[in-house]
Amino acid sequence: MTFYEFVLFVHITGVVVAFGVTFAYPLMGAFVARTDPRSLPTFHRAQAFVGRTIISGGMLIVFVAGAYLATDADVWSEMWVSIPLLILIVLGGLGGMFFGPQETKAAELAERDLAAGGELSAEYQAVAGRIATVGKVASLLILVAVFFMTVKPG
């Protein structure tokens, strides 16, 4: 095994670790809402925690390993490198500026609503809906990045 191959392994592993869980969030959220709605605040706090730790850390690994690979192979100008890099930057921004704050807000709203009588408010539903919608967009972006990195069009 060459060092390049090892770094490629680290890069791919970083993608799997950072973003794999995000594809399960919709199913986990629906399951929690259906089976134990009182756990929704914990679910949303767990999302925010995973974002701050695993996803952010994984993104850093993806970036550093990818930068090494692109530099070593001299492919920075390739579309299949620049588009996934742009997607990584967008996802990082969404994590810090949207997902983290919105997941924390969803946890607080769910906690407030459940303490007040058990019905989840329209305000909570709106925040959870925004998280779900932007989450779908983020998932699509992840798949686009994986497509570009594997197919290498252009």
From TrEMBL:
- Cross-referenced Pfam families, in alphabetical order? DUF2269
Q: Does the keyword Transmembrane helix apply?
A: yes
Q: Which UniProt keywords apply?
A: Membrane, Transmembrane, Transmembrane helix
Domain of life, per the record?
Bacteria
Q: Which residues cross the membrane?
A: 6-28, 49-69, 81-99, 131-151
Q: Which residues form a coiled coil?
A: none
Q: What is this protein called?
A: DUF2269 family protein
Q: Which organism is it from?
A: Svornostia abyssi
